[in-house]
Amino acid sequence: MSPTTERVGPAPGTWHLDPLHSSLIFVARYLSFGRVQGTFGQARGIVEVAEDPVESTVAVTVETSSVNTGVAARDAHLRSSDFLDSDTYPELHFRSTAVVPNRRKENAFTLHGELTVHGKTNPVSMPAQWVGEAPDLSNPDHIYGHFFSANTQISLSDFGVDDGGPLSWGGRLVGDTVDVVLEVRLQDTDPTGFLREVGHID
Q1: Which residues of 153-170 are buried (b: 16+ CB within 10 A; e: fewer)?
Q2: Each residue of 74-131: pLDDT tens digit?
Q3: From start to end of the chain, where are the E strands?
Q4: Is 5 left (phi over 0), alpha (psi -120 to 50) or beta?
Q5: Global pTM?
Q6: Measured distance CA(85)–CA(191) in Å, rounded
Q7: How far apart are the two ends of the chain, measured CA to CA in Å?
């Protein structure tokens, strides 16, 4: 996916999101003044890398019940109908619509797409960059990985996600703007079997 003339990044073909070595991070305002960081631990995704990298496509599904802020009670509240409503909306989805090279930054591009959260779909754009490649640690002869970084911001209100209501001292329980930071590893083999083997999925 590099815009440079000398190709770097994954070779054309199908690449798989490795959830064990990826971080899907969000940072939100909480109680008006604090900031809370969380992750989603369960995700799957396919990247179809094209001969022309700008024709590549991305499709990612994240399980909303896998939200983790490090506090069990808070995570249960986030899963509830007050926020993500994981029983009704068990997944969020991202589907790319365009890859636009960044001519000013090496190995960088903007990934445009559609994000579906809470049953609503909105366009999102995220600056992204290929940052390196390496063989798999446990199976270097048969699995190879590439690493990407990306970030964006979303508004909860655009997706119909509640903010938890007003606070007695002013403001809202959760701020409307959420920062999203992605540190992603793609690999050239389907990780499903290994994820089951280590107990990450059923």
Answers
A1: ebebebbebbbbeeeeee
A2: 999 999 999 999 999 999 999 999 999 999 999 999 999 999 999 999 999 999 999 9
A3: 13-17, 23-30, 34-40, 43-49, 57-63, 67-68, 91-101, 108-117, 120-135, 144-155, 174-187
A4: alpha
A5: 0.91
A6: 28
A7: 32
